[in-house]
Fold this sequence. Notes:
The complex is a heterodimer of chains A (214) and B (221).
Chain A: E1 2-9, E2 12-20, E3 27-31, H1 38-45, E4 53-58, E5 61-62, H2 67-72, E6 74-77, H3 89-99, H4 107-117, H5 133-146, E7 151-155, H6 163-178, E8 182-186, E9 197-200, H7 208-213
Parallel strand pairs in A: 3-8, 3-9, 6-7, 7-8
Antiparallel strand pairs in A: 1-2, 1-4, 4-5
Helix pairs in contact in A: 3-4, 3-5, 4-5
Chain B: H1 2-17, H2 20-40, H3 44-65, H4 69-76, H5 79-85, H6 90-119, H7 127-151, H8 158-166, H9 171-186, H10 191-220
Helix pairs in contact in B: 1-6, 2-3, 2-6, 3-6, 3-7, 3-9, 6-7, 6-10, 7-8, 7-9, 7-10, 9-10
Amino acid sequence: MAEDLACRRGERLVFAGVSFRLSVGGALLLTGPNGSGKTSLLRLLATLIAPAAGRLLWGTMQVDADIASYRAALHYIGHQDGVKPGLTPRETLDFWAALRGHGAGRRPLLLDEALGTFALETVADWPCRWLSAGQRRRLALARLVASPASIWLLDEPTSALDHDSQLRLEHAIAGHRASGGLVVVASHTPIALPAAELISLEAFAPLPDHDAAG
Amino acid sequence: MAAFIGLFRRDLRLALRQGGDTGLVLGFFVLTVVLFPLGVGPEPAVLQRIGAGIVWVAALLAALLSLDRLFEADYQDGGLDLLALSSLPLELAVLAKCLAHWVATGLPLALISPFLALLVDLEPAAIPLLCSSLLIGTPALSLIGSVAAALTLGARRQGVILSILVLPIYIPPLVFGAGAVEAGVVGAGARPYLLILGALSLAALAFCPWASAAGLRQALE
């Protein structure tokens, strides 16, 4: 799926030579200290930033060739939750599902399922400004269920989550993988990802002289 | 199309529900216009002479007031990333946001302008002209402003930089908007002014969504 990826942010080469391949139902766990490029790699996989080198393949096709259908197939949950204080969780989920091009027919059903998966039913019609950090995080994660997509890119998904919510997330990820989905998680807290590939980005940091040359 | 309407409705709902946005803009507009008679004195002749200009300048400043929030909130909370990844092209997303901005600010400004026209003692015959010049001209303000809002995204003191960038570009709508009312008052025919104003709005409609989307892509890099 990815070959020899390198990422440059401004003057600095963050990592180089990262390659991996995920098959159906696969999972990849990114670890590494702060600043080692976990978020950069995820944003790169989400096509939010372009790789400085290397290429990204989806199936047998290069992602650049049909970026729209690749984007439609992925979910990116970044550090920030994308939650507006003035909307309710229900409105938020419905909006993002509509924006991903899901018709109004199936949306209510998936929406209830998403709220249930992350135990948000009781707060579903509160304004989001009343929600705690953990509830906002759960709302961001509920987008995964509200509009199905086969690739999940999760950046520190467990931050602010309590134990019970983390179990719910792990359960959702397991279900997603069982139905053939892929998941890439960046996390420095332990998260249960059975049989996941592991990449520690520390190992891909460029050598100092390399950095100066670049 | 569902995505476009969804984004438009969400932004409009946010603007109306948070109360701040539309209410603040209208309050600022009214207060600015009210200040002028207090400052220049209540002589009807003076006010009549400068009234249309006052209302138009106040409308420019009021529209400017809410522009820095156009993309900033989405940029801060990560929503802009999701917009960029969605099925909706970024150009159309910009258009939906501009449309919501106009309905929440430009349209109410135009609708309450007849009352402010009374305050500055504008001739009754010129009031429909003032209202229609604002209706035709304010879309250009939202659209041009979106380019500046996208370019200054993430900058410190964004509001100030935005004003300096955008106010000079607001001069043509101001000249032709206030000019239309002026021409109507002296009986010279306001039609050419309104047509040029409409042309400005249409040109902004054709050009600004592309420019704003390019600015947003730059900010997301």
